[in-house]
Amino acid sequence: MCRAILIIEDETTLARNLATYLERLGYEPRIAGSAEEGLALIAQWRPEVVLCDHNLPGLSGLDALRRMRSADPDARVVMMTGYGSTELAMDAMRAGAADFLTKPL
User: CA–CA separation, 87 vs 84, rounded Å?
Assistant: First the structure.
């Protein structure tokens, strides 16, 4: 069972609620408020799964996904968005997302 989960989410309340829920289930979540912060965390701490929002300040979640998969082709990244579309989901899956979730989760 995977334990280390990185949550890349700029909505602080959602990120904290998701982290609290995952902790109660026995996971070890960490939170990054931007793609850049998340990529820096990944470089020093190897999460088994990354939950990544699409709409982030600065670098988009989709661009972050591409960088994560380029650095580690086996990276398991689940994209999340509150503005889901079939086209966005297809783009994420083509870029290597393990899954695509629409918010609210």
Answer: 8
